[in-house]
């Protein structure tokens, strides 16, 4: 037996003894019922508010995930483009540096062949042939 049922049975016994207390008891019971209904409504509103907040949080998190995924995709595309450009133009940079090196070696050889001191050295022609 619940506490409310026990209290109601006690109140009914008291009511049978006193007619005025019966009216008071009915008022108290009605007030309790009204209060219970208000509490249930408040709990319902609280649960709705919590659901709305949770829904908003879920939407915010979904948006963050979508933004992060889009950012990752953009980075991947940018890196692929940079890699392709590096392969494409990397050969040009190598050729440019190689040409500069070859030009410097040719200038050095010309400089050595025009220098009198190197011409007098007997090992100089052997160095130039190599």
UniProtKB/TrEMBL annotation:
<keyword id="KW-0143">Chaperone</keyword>
<dbReference type="GO" id="GO:0051082">
    <property type="term" value="F:unfolded protein binding"/>
</dbReference>
<dbReference type="GO" id="GO:0051087">
    <property type="term" value="F:protein-folding chaperone binding"/>
</dbReference>
<dbReference type="GO" id="GO:0006457">
    <property type="term" value="P:protein folding"/>
</dbReference>
<dbReference type="InterPro" id="IPR013805">
    <property type="entry name" value="GrpE_CC"/>
</dbReference>
<dbReference type="GO" id="GO:0000774">
    <property type="term" value="F:adenyl-nucleotide exchange factor activity"/>
</dbReference>
<keyword id="KW-0175">Coiled coil</keyword>
<comment type="similarity">
    <text>Belongs to the GrpE family.</text>
</comment>
<dbReference type="InterPro" id="IPR000740">
    <property type="entry name" value="GrpE"/>
</dbReference>
<dbReference type="GO" id="GO:0042803">
    <property type="term" value="F:protein homodimerization activity"/>
</dbReference>
<feature type="region of interest" description="Disordered">
    <location>
        <begin position="1"/>
        <end position="51"/>
    </location>
</feature>
<feature type="coiled-coil region">
    <location>
        <begin position="58"/>
        <end position="122"/>
    </location>
</feature>
<protein>
    <recommendedName>
        <fullName>Nucleotide exchange factor GrpE</fullName>
    </recommendedName>
</protein>
<feature type="compositionally biased region" description="Basic and acidic residues">
    <location>
        <begin position="21"/>
        <end position="51"/>
    </location>
</feature>
<feature type="compositionally biased region" description="Basic and acidic residues">
    <location>
        <begin position="1"/>
        <end position="13"/>
    </location>
</feature>
<dbReference type="Pfam" id="PF01025">
    <property type="entry name" value="GrpE"/>
</dbReference>
């Amino acid at each position: 037996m619940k506490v409310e049922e026990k209290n109601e049975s006690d109140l009914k016994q008291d009511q049978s003894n006193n007619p005025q207390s019966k009216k008071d008891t009915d008022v108290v019971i009605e007030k309790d019922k009204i209060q219970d209904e208000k509490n249930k409504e408040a709990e319902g509103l609280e649960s709705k508010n919590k659901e709305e907040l949770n829904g908003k949080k879920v939407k915010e998190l979904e948006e963050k995930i979508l933004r992060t995924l889009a950012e990752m995709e953009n980075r991947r595309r940018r890196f692929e483009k940079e890699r392709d450009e590096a392969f494409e133009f990397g050969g040009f940079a190598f050729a440019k540096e190689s040409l500069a090196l070859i030009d410097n070696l040719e200038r050095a050889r010309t400089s050595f062949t025009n220098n009198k001191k190197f011409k007098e050295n007997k090992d100089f022609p052997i160095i130039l042939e190599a």
